Amino acid sequence: MQALATLPVFFKLAGKRAIVVGGSEPALWKAELLAATGAHVEVYADAFADGFDALASEPPNGSVKLMHRSWTPADLDEAAMAIGASEDDVDAAAFAAAARAAGVPVNVIDRPAFCDFQFGAIVNRSPLVLAISTDGAAPVLAQTIRSLVEALLPDGLKRWVEAAKIWRSRGGQLGATPGARRGFWTRFAELAMREAKRAPRETDFDGLLRSPDGAPQSVAIIDVGENAEMLTLGALRVLRTADIIFFDDDVPPATLDFARREAQRYPIAPGIKDPLDRIAEAAKGGAHVVRLIAVSAGSVEPSRNDLRRALRDAGLTVTEFPLVRAI
Question: Under CATH, which number does the domain 218-321 receive?
Fold first, then answer.
């Protein structure tokens, strides 16, 4: 895995106390965001911008209580999160130090030096929630990306995620093996994206339980260029559902980051023949098998005829994803 600038995590705040210090418009937005999660928000300030009274009277979720006074360190006791809108670095440092002394994660708006965590640009299809971060370097870029993602995710997806929470509780019906359960959720994801405009039905659950009869056992062969960005969308979809991956040693490491963490990975050193027996056995056992072939831009693409022929002779279907080069 490549290095991460920050760790993306999601706080469960429903029913918990959250502290906001400051009565400015940025503080208003953070108070509304916290309340939307179901938190009980306390806002400390001597004066409040327009909008706070309306938020306190009709919060989107949870509750908002306006405390018409300055904050004290005792106010942070047993809080789950603390947000500050400080006027200067002195106030920011004092607030951050008090929060940390109380063991409370702290964010000081627009002052990253005093933050334990940051807020990203949010795509809200709750309970489907996405957050996009540039580590504070380019917030406008994050907002632009958010707009693009919002256009790709219909608002109706939230109903499918709500259904998934209910259906997940029926674990015993989803399949006897991890592979069978993963197949159910793969079919679920495809159906949700295809039918996002309508609400899911109980008949959808029944249909998803039925695996395609006589589904061909197959192996996907994917060409990989100098970097992972050259993969096609079809190749990415297949790679993300792989159970077992056989890959050339010189495949760019970033390519494997697209695979599931639990997918088994087997490198193949240069000059070593493909372990055909192992590939065929895995595919016949019901695993989603992918073979990644490194294709150097400066060399002739390696022939796959022997591999393809051997897999087909073993009764397997072979799906190929050739490298698409820019013109």
Answer: 3.40.1010.10
List, for residues 3-56, the tens digit of each pLDDT value. 889 899 999 999 999 999 999 999 999 999 999 999 999 999 999 999 999 999
Q: What is the pLDDT of residues 288-314, one digit of tens each?
A: 899 999 886 445 444 577 888 889 998
Q: Is the torsion defined by CA of 158, 159, 165, 168 positive or negative? A: negative
DSSP notation for 30-76: HHHHHHHTT-EEEEE-SS--TTHHHHHHS-SSSEEEEE-S---GGGG
Upstream peptide bond of 127 is cis (omega within 30 degrees of 0): yes
Mean per-residue pLDDT over the chain, rounded? 89
**Superfamily of domain 120-153, CATH level 4:** Sirohaem synthase, central domain (3.30.160.110)
Domain ranges of the chain: 17-119, 120-153, 157-209, 218-321
**pTM assigned to the model:** 0.68
Q: What is the pLDDT of residue 297?
A: 46
Rg (CA), the chain: 26
Alpha helices in 139-260 (DSSP H): 139-152, 157-168, 178-194, 202-209, 233-240, 253-256
Instruction: Could you please state the CATH topology (level 3) that the domain comprising 17-119 is classified under.
Output: Rossmann fold (3.40.50)
The two structure tokens encoding residue 114: 């005093």
